[in-house]
Amino acid sequence: MPIQAKPVRITDTILRDAHQSLLATRMRVEDMLAVGDKLDRVGFHSLEMWGGATFDSSMRFLRADPWERVKLLRQAIPSTPFQMLLRGQNVVGYRHYADDVVERFVYHAAEVGIDIFRVFDALNDIRNMETAFRAIKKVGRHIQGSISYTISPVHDIPSYVDMARHMVDMGADSICIKDMAGLLAPYVGYELVSQLKQSFPNVPVQVHTHYTSGMASSALIKTIEAGADVVDTAISSLAMGTAQPPTESIVASLQGTAWDTGLNLDLLSELAQYFAQIRDKYRQYEGKLRTVDVRVLRYQIPGGMLSNLDSQLREQNALDRYEDVLAEVPRVRADMGYPPLVTPSSQIVGTQAVLNVIAGERYKIIPKEVQQYVLGYYGRPPAPIDPEVQKIIIGDQEPITCRPADLLEAEMEKSREALGDLARSERDVISNALFPQVAPEFLRWRHHFTDVPGQVVAAIAAAVAYEPPEQAARPAQKIKRSWKWAGRIEATGSRSLRTW
Questions:
Q1: What is the chain's mean pLDDT, rounded?
Q2: C-beta separation of 339 from 122 below 8 A
Q3: pLDDT(476) > 50
Q4: Are the beta carbons of 81 and 481 closer than 8 angstroms?
Q5: What residues does 116 pair with on adjacent strands?
Q6: 89 within 8 A of 455, measured Cβ to Cβ
Q7: Is it the case that residue 454 has pLDDT exceeding 70?
Q8: Cβ neighbours of residue 154 closer than 8 Å, sequence gap 6 or more
Q9: For a FRET experiment, which of 180, 352, 357, 402 has its CA 20 to 30 Å from that of 122?
């Protein structure tokens, strides 16, 4: 049954994934607030502006409270829905956290202004998404269940459709094809979206991809033709490379068609000029991969992972082994049961590949994280782990078969006790539970300047190359947003319903 063409909606990633992919997540909130009003006037389906690495980077590098970032942006951008990337049981970190951390994180994220939670698991193990789904449903926000797209002997369109079916049964309001490495070929994307729309005609489908392989714009156009309801793009001055396709190009390509977005190219052009200046401001953080790299099709390595491999080899003074490591990554991935290469599985596979090459012997050195992965503490791999490799890594130990988080004790109270007087709120407790090596230092820094006027703090912070505390945004306005919840009606607080 053919899908009737209709206007497509745009989620712009300029405030999160675009600068995470190109500028090491260093964009400061003050540079976002300056064009908040313009971003709000565009009419985006949503702005992807939190989650992923932004939480960690805010505290670690920018000396900024990640919770305050959302609140300030919400004040400056009152009408456009906010979207975040949630790593399932990993939340915004790199390991599994106890259910109480996931639940309280989602509660507070919704409270500060997140409307849409894009939830994924690095292994596509839906057990690791269950708690997040329940928590999001409880606070009445939109659950977007995500497929971590990859290519392997055990990944195909039927398996992805089956995963989507499980997520819809769990309460997903929409489905996202999350192509983190730019592997989605245009005609494969067309077929995948077609199958999803035929299987779940009332569930919106969104497509997220990266430009790394050069196929992203073509893939978006073909998936739109197949019935994709929303696609992710980035304002052109922070697009392409390892980021998303350019917003303006997709908008212009669809003008005058049944899929016309209706967005104003003049306004988008103004935003592009502004972010071009901002990009120049952060040029020291730019990676080297600024053009198409077709090696991603051979090695399936996302752009961020390429940067990490480069960094690890430089630290070992072994940059001349770069190509050897690229060739080793697919071998390690096959040994590990073909996990999609996305945080944290990309770090696990990548680090082991580097160690295999540097040591001159495969699996001579095995990090703790690799052992934990093989033992099942990150979830169920898409395919069985190579028995010989498993024997080398964990010996005669038996991997767990339950949901990994079932073995974790509650963490919130321990985090609260560890922080003591440093915690001003439960959000601080959550930050510490997620990043106990980073949050206390940040909170001590913040506590030291508690009674100092904001402008003085900003001057001090700038002098030591830290992020100035965010300037006060204009007073909050009544939020006028709308949303449609596929298949059910939930309490939505101050937010009314939107038609997809």
A1: 89
A2: yes
A3: no
A4: yes
A5: 83, 142
A6: no
A7: no
A8: 338, 382, 383
A9: 357
Residue 296 tokens, joined: 């991603």
Beta bridge partners of 246: 234
221: which 2 tokens? Answer: 């156009």
DSSP string, 59-106: HHTS---HHHHHHHHHHHS-SSPEEEEE-GGGTTSSS---HHHHHHHH
Non-local CB neighbours of 196 within 8 Å, separated by 6+ positions? 160, 161, 164, 175, 177, 203, 205
* Helix axis angle, 99-112 to 130-138, nearest 10°: 40
Residue ranges with strand state E in 131-184: 142-148, 174-178
Half-sphere exposure of 190 (CA within 13 A, CB side): 9
Query: And the tokens for 293?
Result: 């790299």
Other beta carbons within 10 angstroms of residue 274's beta carbon come to: 18
Mean pLDDT of 138-167: 97
Q: Give me 291's structure tokens.
A: 């053009």
* CA trace torsion 199, 215, 343, 71 (10° rounding): -80
What is the C-alpha to C-alpha distance for residues 8 and 317, in angstroms, rounded to an integer?
48
Assigned token pair, 118: 């894009």
Nearest to 212, CA basis, from 236, 179, 188: 179
Question: What whole-number distance in Å separates Cα of residue 305 and Cα of residue 104?
Answer: 30
Average pLDDT over residues 357-376: 96
Which residues face 48 on adjacent strands? 83
List, in order, residues 6 or more apart from 398 with CB less than 8 Å away: none
Q: Where are the beta strands (DSSP E) in 263-314?
A: none
